[in-house]
Write a structure and sequence with these properties.
Nucleoside Triphosphate Pyrophosphohydrolase; Ubiquitin Ligase Nedd4, Chain: W; 9-stranded mixed beta sheet; alpha+beta; single chain; elongated; about 35% strand
């Protein structure tokens, strides 16, 4: 960041008093510019035994399958964001059950939060950011064409919990040096 969003003058990277990380600080008005992680919120929306997936119409990962999810907006709760993203990307109404999985991806400054939700009907349609949408049984999920590791981890845990008949809240930290089908994670589970 070269210029202050408040006054338009030059900024410099420095550690502010009382802080321990470098921030962009305006040399004129003193405003400190914080660059914090982005919150991505989505939903594992189900109709009976099927899971709603969207095939991405945008980069990154154009053409790959994902859960409906996107950037949380100011002024909305995380549950509202999950409901909105499901409607925008998949044209589906969803009743939110509970927060299900939190995936911290520090190396790209993102936090992914997925809710569990139930669709009151199987009605769905591709939104602007989706090429197509579909309801998939567990054995129909296109595992090799999933868009993001967080989506894969979330789906794997959801199916395991569903088979066990008991849903918990799951937390994962993804690390960047991943290769292969099973990414290394630090996993923490807790009951709701």
């Amino acid at each position: 960041m070269s210029f202050c969003i408040r006054c338009g003058n030059a900024t410099a990277l420095a550690v502010p008093d009382g802080d321990n990380l470098p921030r962009h600080i305006c040399g004129t008005c003193g405003h400190i510019h914080y660059d914090n992680p982005r919150m991505i919120v989505g939903c594992i929306a189900t109709w009976e035994d099927r899971i709603l997936l969207c095939r991405r119409a945008i980069e990154p990962r154009l053409g790959y399958w994902t859960l409906p999810a996107g950037f949380m907006e100011n002024g909305e709760t995380t549950a509202e964001a999950a409901r909105r993203e499901t409607l925008e990307e998949a044209g589906a109404q969803v009743d939110i059950d509970a927060a299900f999985a939190l995936v911290s991806i520090a190396h790209i400054n993102q936090v992914h939060l997925f809710y569990r939700g139930r669709m009151p009907s199987p009605a769905c349609a591709a939104g602007e950011e989706s090429l197509e949408v579909g309801l998939f049984r567990a054995d129909e999920i296109p595992w090799e064409a999933l868009s993001f590791r967080s989506v894969r981890l979330c789906l794997e845990q959801f199916l395991a919990d569903r088979q066990r008949g008991d849903f918990s809240f799951h937390e994962r930290d993804l690390i960047p040096d991943w290769h292969g089908d099973h990414p290394p994670t630090n996993a923490r589970n807790s009951t709701p």
